[in-house]
Specification:
Blueprint: H1 11-18, E1 23-26, H2 37-55, E2 59-63, H3 68-72, H4 77-91, E3 96-99, H5 108-111, E4 112-118, E5 121-127, E6 135-144
Helix pairs in contact: 1-2, 2-4
């Protein structure tokens, strides 16, 4: 397996990265500083889907989310765009697996704190509001080791 960075706005870049591969794992990001973040991300998804179809990629794993607009009528552009991309890929019969990871592992250490419960067991605590509530702790054990 090889991990490669690709410019999803450039179809040639995608094509070069996917030449002679069996499959790919795709993560798109939302550029909230752009004029239309949802459409911008959707275009990236169209690009990757179209290139995968042209190259006949045998398996695409896409990091998707449910469309909040469809589920609740609300708006979460970064989730809605991913749902639209997934549906676009599905409608084109790409060999597709969707995975839903609502929170990236790398964000854990930026946004959360951990409280030691006992040896090798920790509670996950999230900093919520600076003034009113300091922490919210989840009762589930984040990590446990028998070592």
């Amino acid at each position: 397996m090889q991990v490669v960075a690709v410019d999803l706005s450039n179809r040639s870049s995608i094509k070069d990265a996917l030449k002679d591969v069996y499959g790919c794992f795709v993560v798109t990001t939302t550029d909230f500083s752009s004029a239309n973040p949802e459409e911008g991300e959707y275009k990236l998804g169209e690009n990757i889907a179209d290139v995968c179809m042209i190259l006949k990629i045998q398996h695409v794993v896409f990091s998707t989310m449910p469309g909040i607009r469809d589920v609740t009528g609300g708006k979460a552009r970064h989730w809605d765009s991913k749902a639209r991309i997934y549906n676009f890929m599905k409608e084109r019969d790409l060999p597709l697996t969707g995975v839903m990871i609502s929170y990236a592992y790398s964000q854990l250490f930026d946004k959360f704190t951990f409280e030691k419960v006992k040896e090798h067991a920790f509670k996950l605590c999230k900093f919520l509001f600076q003034n009113k509530i300091k922490y919210m702790c989840y009762n589930s054990v984040l990590c446990k080791s028998d070592v």
